Amino acid sequence: MERFYNLINGIKVPPVANKWMGSLDPYRNEDWCEIPDSGEADVDAAVAAARSAFMSPEWKGMSQTARGAMLRTLGDLITENAQRLAEIEVRDNGKLLTEMLAQLRYLPQWFYYYGGLADKMEGGVLPIDKADHFVYTAWEPLGVVAAITAWNSPLLLLTWKLAPGLAAGNTFVVKPSEFASASTLAFAELFEKAGFPAGVINVVCGTGQGAGAHLVAHPDVAKIAFTGSDAAGRIISRAAAGELKHITMELGGKSPNIVFEDADLDSAAAGVASGIFAAAGQTCIAGSRLLLQRSIYSAFLDKVTAMASAIKIGDPMDPATQMGPLANTAHYSKVLNCIASAERAGCKLSFGGKPIDHPAGGLFVQPTVFNDVDNNSELAQHEIFGPVLAVIPFDSEEDAIRLANETDYGLGAGVWTKDMARVFRMTKSLQAGTVWVNTYRSLGYMAPFGGVKGSGLGRESGQEMIKSYMQMKTVWINNSTQPVANPFVMRLG
Known about the structure:
This protein folds into 2 domains: 2-250 and 462-474, 3-Layer(aba) Sandwich (Aldehyde Dehydrogenase, Chain A, domain 1), CATH 3.40.605.10; 256-437, Aldehyde Dehydrogenase, Chain A, domain 2 (3-Layer(aba) Sandwich), CATH 3.40.309. 37% of the residues lie in helices and 22% in strands. The chain contains 16 helices and 23 strands. Helix 3 packs antiparallel against helix 6 (108-117), helix 4 (82-93) runs antiparallel to helix 8 and helix 11 (265-277) packs across helix 12. The termini are far apart.
């Protein structure tokens, strides 16, 4: 069985306690590699390496222009290694090779984009009201950043943190999910090839309760950039607040996909299916609530059910496969339990809802559709993170807005309509960090992404997000040779 190692100060090292965990191939439902089960000593070593690198002349003394060039070199290396990294990711979390390869081929754009921004973060000279003073501002990096990522798209989620954070001049300790760490460890090998000094990027694997908790609490960590569940996010937020750490959090979602009667119904049906059944629903932006106008309810539900029944389920490495397995056994059990709980609560199951006995032995669940769901039910309010769609009828535009916003989450929302006046009313009224109109699951390096309410704090991607990895310094220079008239009074006038 293949074994992956932590990366600390540019060296692949085993965990100090020599403890290891198996990593599951969910298509075959068997372990395919081993990863470190790290403890506090491993985290301490990684943070020390990152702190030393941050203060080193090799990194701190590097010009922003040189740093940007290094990020662009990294982007080229990702392109060269996209196939290998995508295949590792598929083996580790069961997502489709077609999607993972598309992600890996697009990832370089983040490093090119932020590489270009690295030397564009200008301060300014202030027109201060004191003639004998010269005052200016400068942007500076924060220090050591802890990047904690989820198992569903490890390298995409990590890139959203690394690209702006490195462009800003920070160093990193990365803690990937214990359910999908292998691709991150393989990815980290590219940084030395790109010319990054040792210790700028460190990767420590382990559980959230073990290595993750110690990393969050470490006094030398200046910022935590986290993607994961809202429950874990609240724990991390409380810990970070106690230490006054900077945080960026992209958490869960229960996103509404809203279809009006005037929409292009074929396009909308494809968008709804993509929103919930792509990636087997294991995506924070899953359109897990279909809000459907009552006048087209039955006909449109038939379209969606027909698409669900035609999904090709199987080997995620096969280009023809449209839906793969769930990523790990704990999550597989959770999704099936949520379906069973919804049925016990009286929700109407229209399609699916059962595990699939696949010849490979993998963790497959049928695409599942529940009909006439109460928006206040657990099914409609709880993030399942699986291929489970709750269909909720509505009558008016006002009704759709109310239903869409009646949730603790606010990550994304979809609107399907040809009425442009309605588009502007809906996008203004929906409580979501991203609203897609006549499309769904579209992302890009130039567009900020993140949630409101229980879906997170801060944003990732986009030009302004580099500032979330920096802090502003104000410098006052006195040009006068005259002594201060009264040294015991603050100089205000």
